[in-house]
Structure to design on (347 residues):
């Protein structure tokens, strides 16, 4: 793997403005970033305001030239949700013609009305051929953000951020803000080799849960070994962090000692299998501590609670955050949660 460019206290800002208005009301403010546009469209879709969501996307889309794929992917999701299947497949076909591929699981109920249609099957076959070709050329990658005081002769703690399903280094950096993590550690954002769509990756293409984590763990471990070989990491001061699929990997790799982590920051770990009591006891004896957050209504909440109970019984120090009325999502104040979690590990 080509060693990535080292960023010294340089943080990406992904802000692109869109112009115009989708309404004649002067107080109707438009989204000013891709994140805000996606959130606004999602709220409209949840309220079944499909035409309004699509109009908003069409209005802001021309100003978001670097989000061409994401815009088509969002429109595809909205149109399938609205059961406007022909329009959805028009968007899909245009994307495939341009060489894009999308994350489509045909067995899900969304595709029940069209799953057996010849057009859907043809598009799915073309889509998956593009994904398979991309996977053949794909390798796991990492990107480093180093402290402003970085010196090759120094020794620094490492926070290793593992992205979730259908995510990427870019998306992980947007959510796991390096400024919130802090400027006194090396931060490594690691990325799977397995392509989900044209812009994102997964640690497991077979489904939601990672019950067989072999390939994913091998990739994360391989990247960790590359990082500590190339950068002055204090290997006694390593923390693993991640959400969903990334949270699953951070939780089990830290607990099992696959990577000798001092701490972990885990969000909604994507598994229904808790960390076993004996594994928690061994991890507690090694001094593993950390923060685990989960939505009270999340499908991972029960397994997460069992994991926390096993760690607590073993004497480990865990900060367990249960977000009331939330599901598989981040806390509203995630930057503050993240900053506090890092401080707890390294204080």
């Amino acid at each position: 793997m080509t060693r990535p460019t080292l960023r010294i206290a340089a943080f990406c800002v992904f802000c692109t403005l869109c112009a115009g208005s989708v309404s004649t009301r002067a107080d109707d403010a438009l989204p000013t970033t891709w994140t805000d546009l996606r959130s606004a469209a999602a709220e409209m879709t949840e309220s079944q305001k499909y035409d309004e969501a699509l109009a908003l996307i069409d209005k802001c889309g021309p100003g978001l030239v670097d989000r061409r794929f994401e815009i088509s992917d969002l429109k595809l999701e909205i149109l399938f949700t609205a059961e406007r299947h022909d329009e959805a497949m028009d968007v899909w076909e245009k994307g495939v013609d341009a060489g894009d591929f999308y994350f489509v699981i045909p067995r899900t109920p969304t595709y029940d009305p069209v799953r057996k249609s010849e057009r859907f099957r043809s598009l799915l076959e073309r889509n998956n051929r593009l994904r398979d070709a991309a996977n053949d050329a794909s390798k796991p990658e990492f990107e480093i953000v180093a402290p402003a005081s970085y010196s090759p002769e120094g020794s620094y703690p490492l926070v290793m951020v593992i992205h979730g399903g259908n995510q990427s280094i870019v998306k992980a950096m947007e959510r796991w803000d390096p400024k919130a993590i802090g400027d006194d550690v090396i931060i490594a954002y690691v990325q799977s080799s397995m392509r989900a769509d044209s812009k994102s990756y997964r640690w497991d293409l077979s489904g939601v849960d990672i019950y067989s984590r072999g390939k994913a763990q091998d990739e994360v471990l391989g990247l960790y070994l590359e990082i500590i070989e190339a950068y002055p990491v204090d290997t006694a001061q390593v923390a693993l962090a991640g959400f969903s699929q990334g949270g699953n990997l951070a939780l089990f790799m830290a607990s099992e000692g696959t990577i000798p982590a001092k701490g972990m920051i885990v969000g909604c770990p994507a598994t229904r299998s808790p960390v076993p009591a004996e594994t928690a006891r061994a991890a507690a004896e090694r001094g593993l501590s950390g923060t685990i957050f989960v939505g009270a209504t999340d499908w991972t909440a029960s397994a997460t609670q069992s994991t926390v109970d096993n760690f607590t019984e073993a004497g480990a120090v865990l900060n367990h955050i249960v977000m009331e009325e939330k599901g598989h999502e981040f806390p509203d104040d995630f930057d503050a949660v993240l900053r506090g979690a890092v401080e707890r590990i390294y204080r």
Observations:
- The two ends are 34 Å apart (CA to CA).
